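User: Show me a protein chain along with its predicted structure.
Assistant: Here is one chain, sequence first, then structure tokens.
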Amino acid sequence: MSGSNEDDGNVKSPGERGAYVLLPIKGVLMVAAIALISSSRDISMGNPCELKEALDLISLNYAPFCKYNATIEESDTVFDWGIAAFCCHSILFLVILSACMWPSENKKIGFLIIYIVVFVFAVIFIPLIFMQYNNINDTKKITAHRVDYRRLKLEMLHSLDKHFKSDDPKNDKTISSGWNKLFIQYKCCAVHDVNGTTNDFDTTPWCTTSGTCQATASQIPKTCCKDVTLTNYTSAPPACHASVNPGTYNSGCFELVKLLSVANVEPCQVIMLFSLCPSWQYYRYWTLSLQ
């Protein structure tokens, strides 16, 4: 009889068996949350898309998304979710672990409370996780967007050709002033690379109607010269803006704009984020199904 009683004492109740099943699941979810936090933080630290900021200077109505830009914006939310998930699963893991060590007379009510808490967490968080996962999936479509560089170049050329009237960057908020600020801020010149006195500025109002180019005092704006700023551009050397000597002026703006359209995110980071979100969602669903 004593052997039978000892065996009965070693038989775990359904609630206790369920707790031992939940423990490794919570451990896996904690690891997944850490990976989600790390992946989303790496992506959010990538350089933001600067294309729109640059084109806004010249009032160009063309603002396509950079590659992975939507993912970068969404990653901050995913990071917050990862922190919340890690905290919740860590607390539940510790509570379940301690409950397994409670005296047998307290375990039944203790496990019942734990299951209710886990169930409430699952009911609240699973719909929200589905919504967040759908948001991540939506970014895939935006990520697939590609900038039409040919159209972008044509629009930049049209803007320069129609609106560039002065090499003064302080000329109020005109598009011409915006172009000069673009040249100084991003250290570039014109749209194509300048290869001499014949360049993108030849057909602009600055050269055909009025301005230092039309007066033959300059061939390219002083703001195109290397190392000039908003305060000293008027002192740009004549060898640059008048003689257009190679090495004295910056390269074309279009190639720079192409670089600005690519956010500093590795494709492998995006793949990891997309794969972690459904995995996290799956385990959360599994946790609920055990109740």
